[in-house]
């Protein structure tokens, strides 16, 4: 086994299936993005370290990160962003992988999806893209912090900066949307509208703090108008957690004029997003959130601690436990809108 400079070999113990995996597989489908080992929401144990690695040692529990934090580039040094110039995503968002890869199959290169590739028993990670976590953390739960839960929770707390007593609307009740609901609740929102076309998700949303439930299919008028009528002009904050440009516009237009903030959270890069200029001229703010605004190496261990301290829910997101050999079944379940499918790859006990 070759151990690369500044890299660690990580044994993946558990990984979630995220909609972004499906996006790459069935929607983005960039011709230069395959073949690829999917998966980016995992947790594992450091098996070995390469030359120059100073932060980790074999046996450490870790979460691979699809956003690096080198702590040296202009983005890492700026508190306004969690971007990093040294990660895989620098200039290759469409392919969703670096041109460089440590994976091969039958002598041919296989891309490392989002720099992580957690649908594998082993992966090779640069030390700037791994977070060391509490050794008592259960990997088959905290793996979800590698993407979806941090993305939704942080979008509410870090990006939108939801305030106590405010009103919020979350569009889309997958894992990211439910985490956004949880973030709004944690921030002290008074009313949290859960918006989805699947009414079966409303009971689950209540667990995370939703107070009101709106199904656009139940109304013969735009959802923005429905919410405006329910809130005296619109919500203070809206979060789009679907990755659909039409829903993004609806979320913006559901905000109150003057100070409403709408955050784009759902991942997509296929179509332009648009609105009438007056929506922004009137004082609304439209912004985006990547990984919930968390600086990855700092934020993920903090979220793990929050889970261990029972301040953040994780167990409630999990609907299925499956093996790596059932990964195709897990993807099929995601396609029919399961909230979150967890694949437990293997146990080290």
Average pLDDT rating: 88
**Can you give the helix content as a percent range?**
25-40%
CATH superfamily of the largest domain: Medium-chain alcohol dehydrogenases, catalytic domain
The global form is globular
Number of strands: 16
User: Poorly predicted ranges (pLDDT <50, ≥5 residues)?
Assistant: 344-349
Tally of separate helices: 10
Number of self-contained structural domains: 2
Query: What are the secondary-structure elements, in order, as H or E?
Result: EHEEEEEEEHHEHEHEHEHEHEHEHE
Domain Alcohol dehydrogenase-like N-terminal: 9-104
GO biological process, one term: formaldehyde catabolic process
Cofactor: Zn(2+)
Keywords: Metal-binding, Oxidoreductase, Zinc
Written account of the structure:
The structure is a single chain. The chain has helices at 19-28, 139-142, 148-160, 175-186, 202-208, 223-230, 245-253, 277-281, 296-308, 327-335; strands spanning 7-17, 36-37, 41-49, 61-64, 103-105, 108-112, 122-126, 130-132, 167-171, 191-195, 212-214, 237-240, 261-264, 285-288, 320-322, 341-344. Strands 1, 3, 4, 7, 8, 15 and 16 form a seven-stranded mixed β-sheet that branches. The chain has a six-stranded parallel β-sheet with strand order 11-10-9-12-13-14, with helices on both faces. By secondary structure, the chain is of the alpha/beta class. It starts with 6 loop residues before the first strand and ends in a 5-residue tail after the last strand. The longest helix is centred in the middle third of the chain and has 13 residues, at 148-160. The chain folds into two domains: 7-147 and 293-346, Alpha-Beta Complex (Quinone Oxidoreductase, Chain A, domain 1), CATH 3.90.180.10; 161-288, Rossmann fold (3-Layer(aba) Sandwich). Residues 175-303 form the Alcohol dehydrogenase-like C-terminal domain. Residues 9-104 form the Alcohol dehydrogenase-like N-terminal domain. It comes from Seriola lalandi dorsalis. GO terms for molecular function: S-(hydroxymethyl)glutathione dehydrogenase [NAD(P)+] activity; zinc ion binding. This is Alcohol dehydrogenase 1-like.
